[in-house]
Amino acid sequence: MAAVLESLLREEVSVAAAVRWIARSAQSSEVTAPTRPQAWPESAFRDDPGEAAALSSLRPLRKEFVPFLLNFLREQSSRVLPQGPPTPAKAPGSSAALPGRPGGPPRGGRGARSQLFPPTEPSSTAAAEAPSARRGGRRRGPGPGRERGGRGSGGLEEGVSGESSPWAGGRRPRGSGSPGSPSLARSDPPNLSNLEEFPPVGSVPPGPAGRTKPSRRINPTPVSEERSLSKPKTCFTSPPINCVPSSQSSVPDTSPWGHGLPPGCRSLQEEREMLRKERSKQLQQSPTPACPTSESGSPLPSRTGNLTAEPADPARVSSRQRLELIALIYSSCIAENLVPNLFLELFFVLQLLTARRMVATKESDLEPIPGALDSLESPLFQSVHDCVFFAVQVLEHQFQVLSYLDKGTLKLLAENERLLCFSPALQGRLRAAYEGSVAKVSLAMPPSAQAVSFQPETDNRANFSSDRAFHTFKKQRDVFFEVLREWEDRHEEPGWDFEKGLGSRIRAMMGQLSAACSHSHFVRLFQKQLLQMCQSPSGTGGTVLGEAPDVLSMLGADKLGRLRRLQERLVAPQSSGGPCPPPTFPGCQGFFRDFILSASSFQFNQHLMDSLSLKIRELNSLALPQPEPSDEDGESDVDWQGERRQFAMVLLSLRLLAKFLGFVAFLPYRGPEPPPTRELQDSILALRSQVPPALDVRALLQQGLRARRAVLTVPWLVEFLSLADHIVPLLDYYRSIFTLLLHLHRSLVLSKESEGEMCFLNKLLLLAVLGWLFQIPTVPEDLFFLEEGQLDTFEVDTVTSEQGLDGMPVVDQHLLYTCCPYIGELRKLLASWVSGSSGRSGGFVRKITPTTTTGLGAQPPRTTQGLQAQLAQAFFHNQPPSLRRTVEFVAERIGSNCVKHIKFCQKKSPGAVRALLPEETPAAVLSSAENIAVGLATEKACAWLSANITALIRREVKAAVSRTLRAQGPEPAARGERRGCSRACEHHAPLPSHLISEIKDVLALAVGPRDPEEGVSPEHLEQLLGQLGQTLRCRQFLCPPAEQHLAKCSVELASLLVADQIPVLGPPVQHRLERGQARRLLHMLLSLWKDDFQVPVPLQLLLSPRNLGLLADTRPREWDLLLFLLRELVEKGLMGRTEIEACLGSLHDAQWPKDFSEELATLFNPLLAEPHMPEPQLRACELVQTNRGTVLAQS
Amino acid sequence: MILTKAQYDEIAQCLVSVPPTRQSLRKLKQRFPSQSQATLLSIFSQEYQKHIKRTHAKHHTSEAIESYYQRYLNGVGRNGAAPVLLDLANEVDYAPSLMARIILERFLQEHEETPPSKSVINSMLRDPSQIPDGVLANQVYQCIVNDCCYGPLVDCIKHAIGHEHEVLLRDLLLEKSLSFLDEDQLRAKGYDKTPDFILQVPVAVEGHIIHWIESKASFGDECSHHAYLHDQFWSYWNRFGPGLVIYWYGFIQELDCNRERGILLKACFPTDIVTLCHSLA
What we know:
The complex is a heterodimer.
Chain A: H1 2-9, H2 15-25, H3 49-56, H4 65-76, H5 130-140, H6 144-147, H7 154-160, H8 225-229, H9 268-285, H10 320-335, H11 342-353, H12 363-366, H13 384-397, H14 399-403, H15 407-414, H16 417-422, H17 424-436, H18 456-459, H19 467-490, H20 498-511, H21 516-534, H22 551-556, H23 560-571, H24 589-599, H25 602-620, H26 633-666, H27 678-689, H28 697-706, H29 710-722, H30 732-747, H31 760-773, H32 783-786, H33 813-819, H34 824-835, H35 844-848, H36 864-877, H37 881-901, H38 905-916, H39 923-948, H40 951-968, H41 992-1007, H42 1018-1034, H43 1040-1058, H44 1075-1092, H45 1105-1112, H46 1120-1131, H47 1137-1147, H48 1154-1169, H49 1177-1194
Chain B: E1 2-3, H1 5-13, H2 22-31, H3 37-55, H4 62-78, H5 84-91, H6 96-111, H7 118-126, H8 134-146, H9 152-175, E2 180-182, H10 183-189, E3 197-205, E4 208-216, H11 222-240, E5 243-247, E6 251-252, E7 263-266, E8 273-275
Parallel strand pairs in B: 1-6, 4-5, 5-7
Antiparallel strand pairs in B: 2-3, 3-4, 3-8
Helix pairs in contact in B: 4-6, 5-6, 6-8
């Protein structure tokens, strides 16, 4: 390979020819089209018969060229970027041996950084010794890498070092000058013991700044997952169902799936033991004492001196031509997608751009070796000037991609003084791109992080098999949210552990889900909540677009909360590490992952997979409404905003669902490493190849490619595959998927802009996600280069009759960065350069933007507009989803039509909404829905107008709409029924509760005990009865139980009046109620009983032994009031004589004083014998009674 | 009437071992003239209930019951007209209505062939006229009308208060033209948890979205609020999103800490309701 590079350098072969040569190895015919990057020199296209000859001899090595080139560049840069491999690179396959590979990878200590790509499998006899030949070729080379001698297995060293990088899942290299490298004398080894530069993740860095560069070291105390599982044990067994997942959340989430490993039955003690072993192993394997591991903690001299950036000078660039050439060929490889990860290369280039200084070496090294310019004999980068020159060269070629980055990155690039110094032209173009950038598109995602709403259609009793199931689910819903709230409150607390805190509660709840129907209910709830909480970017730790926040203004902010959040961010593990982070479950996603793990229920997992698959199919095939072909330029803009928003919503949902589907589907197979032996692997492959996939993703991918919907399908497929286990890429089924994806990747040449071509940002999104996928630890690192020979086996026959999604501008920068937050690493890198502390800095950009989870409750919106938007969201939240779809559909269509016909919206929308919604929709809901539709449609129309018509007209339009709306007004809500009041009633009567309470007090006073000064006035009693009348007539607040008690109390009161038991308050002291007053009160009561009570009044209580007994105790006994009352009752028809008779009859059982019984008999017999008495006789009766009373008193 | 925790504690401190009589209430009103009567009564009642819950068991041991019954018998034996049962309840620091129940139950056990059912006892407490013993009937009645925290009358008053506030709230909602579904309608539709009102179109109060409103005609103290949160408010949130709780007799200020989470507390009907307005900004 070096020969190719050398022949290039000697100009025996032109760059264009070389690129064609390389690309042809992929046999992707598309490359024949001129695909030159911008600023490609014309001379590069010279073709020469000699070239072909020069290259043809190297034919078998063709596909190894790119890995060689990339490794070469990494190796060359190791002196400038000595602080480790912020450019993550795939280490040689540690144990990801592919079938057919003769043996395990070589082992030994070696600078892992320089080994970017592993040897690929020999594809021909000539290349049978390719790996060694390649290494040999390298050995022939004069570069520093060559001098390192025996290449070891950097990968393996990773495997035992007892540390794993948080972004590499334990397989990525760390530290350029890694232990065991003999070249340490030349390049300063990174001081891994310097805690300031390499603070363990999880510890609080001493300074305020975090690090931009991916953390390479983690605090190894809790032995990470892959470590504990590298023991040949549970790799391929599913976790025991009843095995309680061990506590894990205190462990930094280093593995891609965090807790996804077989629930360990590890104790801390075991971990410590393993740690000790690992440490001793590592010490044995690191011959260089200069590279102690961080935990040894020996304070070595700090390298902070190196942090000062050396000025870069274009005039001092050595071997300019050579650098130009290599930059060109490197850029061409990038442009042709011959490199696995576009953004990784950009990151690398930016690292070169921002290199601080060359690591001090022997003076002679800095001098160009004479006559070696055309070969690889001398180091490529001899100074910082070289690095910067090379970087700027590459950036010039990659300008098109750069121009699509977010505004913040563009600004930092445009402001980079080195860039300005080396290429004022590029700086100018970047500045122009920055100024023209509108990459601050707001997605306007709903801030909804609410609970899934209860929908009677799916959630009421009719949907359950039994009352029990219904009530069980009711409880489960509450437990689920209780657990969720507790997680929200506590998951960031140090020492809190998901499993310990919530595990048993979750399992107890899952245990109640006996019926399959209950499972499906719960899964629906779980999935909906997942979508609600994690779909929005804020739930996944998205980064802020646009201008990078100013550190000073941030620190100067007087808000304590901000500083607190800053502190939290510094303590919290970084959500995104490096340009190629492993798949993680940021924010709320962590809850759902841990829930699945803690629940450890196979029924639940199965139902969840079914449900996720169905939803994925549904969303994936969703016909995203296509904007009508526009006849006016402006109109399409109006529509594309909505289009993009909807696309983003669907895409983000799909990605989330697919990620969880992948997580659950591959959960039983997940292990930290591939199987240790070939035999084992074969048997596993045999087993696995017969298992049908959880979801036929291959068919969906093929459909997606055919229908030109790759931009929708591929991003979620990548999420799904990112959680696959090590075996998956080896299975025929998935292998064919990877082949398709590789083919697609190669075809996404950004510089191609022809009719029917995919939109630029769509391509960029796919390149980013695919590039990321190719770096996932479980994807064999050589897959990218290995597969290329087979690319021609599959032809995608796209049905391009209609324009698919791929050709529509559905992706914007916001979506790109939301899906691929790691692209933001470019900005962080540049920002850290500005901050001048590249060694450990840079995180500040991210840290200011807290990526904490969205609270379950929404933050109070600050503006009226925000509040209104939130209200609209909230409105839809509790309505069936169809309502929202209808409203949006109407708004979309009407808004669009209105623009065409400039009529207006409020007349059409309500009718359309009404026509589309079900008839039983409540009036208020309908009215709101209509109004929102009008508002949205008007908004859309206004958006168009604002772009096309003058402000004056716009105001007119708005005013007209407002007027119309106000005139319509919300229909007055129907007044509640009158509940028996008269029409004129104003409901000012005293409250029933108040009256019961008042009467109770009187009763209490009457029966005592009471203080000497206590009593009631007759006026008060009269007033009370008056109020009772009012209350009984108003009835607004009256409920039957209250009325019943009032009736009973009124009878008790009458009994006390009759027995003269009411203590009357008044001068001078307590006394009895006057006869006339008592009678007046009884009259009032009679009238209430007759006219006002609507419940039966228990008048028979008047003659109960207890109430009559009140009379028995009085001396002299006063019968006249009782007789008066009874006569009146009979008179008014309130009681019949027979009824009274019956009551009196029952009195015989009671034990009375003998004389009392006799008196009773004497008095009542005439009463009962009396015929119907007309009104006038009352007064006579009174007289009689008075006499009788006197008689009685005398007796 | 929103009280700070400190203010509340000061009031609660004065309620320790105070019998639930109207005399006690009168004194309490004098002690805290600035507080509304209803609030004080609500606080008193809740504190007293907490006290009874704590001490309930010790009054229900068979020894205790036997001892109370003997004291009752001795007391009424000396003077049936004296407030024997009421005095006994106050003396042993137990609610008069509950003491009446203990004695009534014990009495019936002695005088009936079969042990009395709960419904029989409840019915007799509601209408002491049914009690076969005249003296006991009077004693029980006296306990019930003098107890301001327990008993059928108090229960009825509480129920009535709750109902009245729901009606009040309904009228206020109608007055504001806010359409809603009430508890009965929700139950008819098969909702498994039903707040007093669900707004068909949400509103905002003090910047917080409100989907449902629950009326509580009591004072929101820590104990009751936490119980309500667990049994009702969070369940509503889990189904309908954020909502509003109106504690008509006030609450402890510090409990209003879940606003951001979606549970807003108020002591009255909110005045600044923002509705989804449809005119263009």
